[in-house]
Write a structure and sequence with these properties.
heterodimer, A: 262 residues, alpha+beta, 12 helices, B: 181 residues, mainly alpha, 0% strand, disordered N terminus
Chain lengths: 262, 181
């Protein structure tokens, strides 16, 4: 079904017949591109969204964060009946300690909050924070020749002491290889290989020569800074593949990458 | 590598990230809670309950989807099953929500007035329409993702959004609204 922008605007305005509306809904359920197209035509989304994203006020968030971070019991009479006798902060700490002490966990049990904070500030977290700054515009005009790309990978390989399978990386399905650059964390190099999906979404594969504390027993899928990610350990380097919100797609690509870089 | 590669190790290895991510998602969770409850104080309580429930149930998060989507599903469940029946009934959403108390006063006065008008119009919407506007317009979820969070068909999402658009377009017409950004 070929649908014009005018028809889709009429759909948004609820001006079509019931049959036409249902036909478009059915089409949209099967076609994510159509869904994206309709969303892009909705002129109310941006102004309404930008106003409402200004909420809540800073003081309210600070207060909520303090409540969540502080160790204050919630079981006083003024609290709603659904409140339980464990503060959120205590639950957070309990959650951390339980997670870290499970059999097979590779992290040692922290003895105080400082150790917990250190465990949180690892290279993957910093990569995620950096990658979260990437938008479609960041990678929209990135373009290097084959020679320039080869030179970038030669340099990255020298610094990282890691061979990158450039040809295979350039042939991954659904994503376009754009460039590689070398960043630094804790005085150690991180190679960031940047890709772009067919929708223009930036995705990065990062490699880091971490220490024993960075080793993962198995690959992990997780959302970091609102981005889908997969992390795994190779024989000599740590890897993190991160970007977009399509975790399934990322998992599939990461499996292929892990076989290329292990 | 198969299943082992996609091991659900989130609960074992990355509990340290869950607390941090919950704090980072707090504004989104709060906005959704406000959309459901129409009351900022109830939204505060709903956010706290959501965070606590997310921590208690973290082993159920498989790490393959969006954490924020999972949290909003929890938020909605708590609202429907536990809080809504006990929430103070308001004759008008405006009784509980005063725009000037929630909107950042650091921004330009004219923009502030416009923001107050948009905010008021959104809060005047029925709960069901507010929730869809919040998920799609504010948090940027796709229609299909909003449908999953709210556990309703995508057609219902579209009809609620259409109804909301009709009311929001009353703000001087959509072109004026667009022109303000």
């Amino acid at each position: 079904m070929t649908l014009s922008d005018d028809t889709l605007r009429a759909f948004l305005a609820d001006s079509l017949s019931e049959e036409e509306t249902q036909a478009i809904v059915n089409e949209m359920e099967a076609d994510p591109d159509l869904e994206r197209r309709i969303m892009a035509l909705d002129e109310l989304a941006a102004p309404v969204g930008s106003v409402m994203r200004g909420l809540p006020e800073d003081s309210r968030m600070e207060r909520l964060e303090k409540i969540i971070a502080a160790d204050h019991p919630v079981n006083d009479n003024t609290k709603p009946y659904w409140a339980v006798g464990v503060s959120i902060a205590a639950a957070l700490v309990i959650g951390l300690l339980v997670g870290l002490s499970l059999p097979g966990g590779f992290l040692s049990l922290p003895t105080d909050q400082a150790n917990v904070q250190t465990a949180q500030s690892n290279w993957r977290h910093e990569v995620a924070r950096y990658q979260a700054l990437y938008g479609k515009e960041t990678v929209a005009h990135l373009s290097f020749t084959a020679d320039e790309l080869a030179a970038q990978f030669d340099r990255a390989s020298d610094i990282m002491k890691l061979d990158f399978p450039v040809v295979a990386l350039s042939k991954l399905p659904g994503i376009e290889l754009l460039r590689v650059q070398v960043l630094e964390f804790d005085k150690k190099p991180i190679a960031q290989i940047v890709f772009r999906t067919s929708e223009g979404t930036p995705i990065a594969l990062c490699a880091f020569a971490g220490g024993q504390d960075d080793k993962l027993d198995t690959a992990i899928s997780a959302t970091e800074q609102g981005l889908a990610s997969v992390s795994w350990s190779g024989s000599t380097h740590e890897f993190m593949f991160i970007g977009g919100q399509d975790q399934k797609k990322l998992n599939k690509l990461a499996e292929e990458l892990a076989s290329l870089l292990s | 590598m198969g299943e082992r590669f996609y091991s659900l190790m989130f609960g074992k290895k990355h509990n340290d990230d869950l607390g941090q991510q919950l704090v980072e998602h707090l504004p989104s969770i709060w906005r959704f809670a406000l959309a459901l409850s129409g009351d900022p104080d109830i939204a505060d309580d709903l956010v706290q309950a959501t965070c606590l429930r997310a921590i208690e149930k973290q082993s159920q998060f498989d790490g393959l989807g969006s954490l924020i989507g999972w949290c909003l599903t929890i938020c909605r469940s708590i609202w429907l099953n536990e809080l809504r029946k006990n929430a103070k009934r308001q004759t008008s959403a405006l009784d509980a929500v005063e725009p000037e108390k929630l909107i950042d006063h650091k921004i330009d006065i004219e923009l502030n007035i416009f923001a107050a008008q948009v905010f008021t119009k959104v809060m005047e919407l029925p709960e069901a329409q507010r929730a869809v506007v919040e998920l799609v317009y504010v948090e940027g979820f796709k229609y299909s993702e909003a449908a999953k969070i709210l556990d309703i068909p995508i057609g219902t999402i579209m009809s609620r959004l259409s109804a909301a658009r009709k009311k929001l377009s009353e703000l001087g017409g959509s072109k004026t609204l667009v022109g303000q950004v």
